[in-house]
Amino acid sequence: MREDATKFLHAADVHLDSPMRGLARHEGAPLEALRGAARRAMENLVSLAISEGVEFVVIAGDLYDGDRDDYNTAVFLQRQLRVLGEAGIDVVIALGNHDAANEITKRLKLPSNVRVFSHQQPESIILEAAGVALHGQSYASRAVVEDLSANYPAAIANYLNVGVLHTSLNGRPNHERYAPCTADELADRGYDYWALGHVHQREVLKRQSSYLVFPGNLQGRDVGETGSKGATLVEYSLSGIQELRHVELAPIRWEVVEVDLGASSSVDDVIVAASLALAERSEATSAELLAARLEISAHTKLAEAWSRDAPRHEAQLRADANGASESLWIEKIKLKVVAGRSFAHEGEAIEAIRNAIAALRAQPSDSGEFSAIFAPLRAKLGSEFEEIMRLSDGVLDPNGAGALLDDVESLLFGELEGPL
Fold first, then answer.
1. Which residue has the higher pLDDT, 402 or 284?
2. 22 near 72, Cβ under 8 Å?
3. Smallest Cα–Cα separation from 40: which of 281, 250, 244?
4. For residue 64, what pLDDT is reported?
5. How far apart are CA 175 and CA 194, in angstroms?
6. What are the extents of the domains in the chain?
7. How many whole angstroms separate alpha carbon 151 and alpha carbon 123?
8. Which label site among 27, 146, 236, 260 has the fewest CB atoms less than 10 Å from its CB?
9. What are the Cα distances from residue 102, in Å, to 43, 113, 218?
């Protein structure tokens, strides 16, 4: 193993030229940018590998989709792999469930700097200059239901040992249970690092002295694949793994932006608050474009006001948000109705009640004094005053005014200031 610290780059689930079905349903969608995002993410991966001076790049499956037979994809991939080769960077690939069944995989002749694990049995690939022994096996077909790792070679002394496997481990949500195994079983192989693929959400596990890493997919394909997407940069030396660092490479980031508008009183408030939330999220990402699904929670009356002319309100919100940031696209706007009580003068009512309670605490009250204290509130709220008094459950009755204590606030305002 090398004595000095150096690096390699671990990526998976590139899905080059994935068709991203269903995008055409979204009016105004930046189709060209979305469909080209995986290629730009791959270009970013290559640029990062060169700028960081990595020894090699390992790709743990699913370079493209299983049903694609487009040689434009092959030409693009060849070019990127050759750029890495010209920079003296080796590439090691384990085919996964998508690229194993792909016609491009069967026919593509790869550059000399690229090695692909056999699909017939596990094997070891030694990179002498890097001081690394990589162990892995490609998929022979789209569905692999046996534990491939059970037959992986033993760790080799004096090398950094890296296992490469396309797997869901013991199962992950929304992923087929391929090449099943457990984290503990992988750690028992004695490898320093497991470069995993198949699961699109980044995950880092530590078992014994072994790191098990899903880097996540290189580029999210829809709103079900949110957050920072990219690859894992690994620093290692004679003593083993030194540092893991996630690097965002996806030009487009998918996010679900939640806005709770229970306290808002008008549709204009909704548009302003949602636009601000989107702008803040857009500014916080380093991606070229934020593709956001906006989920708005609003109380019943506000939701009804929005729904009466939803197309116009949505158009205004999109115009305001997109006008504030060119790097933002709203994929969908969803309105969630939150049950609760809504008062026309809610803020004023709460303040008036606080003042009334303070007055009751300050002096004993008979019925006349009680009525005088609450008269301004009754005049302002009209019929809503009776509903507020009902919520107080009799604690504001003049006969009990002397017993008002601190827990009045928790009783009354828990009703008035709860989710709307």
1. 284
2. no
3. 250
4. 84
5. 19
6. 6-248, 252-331, 346-416
7. 9
8. 27
9. 21, 21, 19
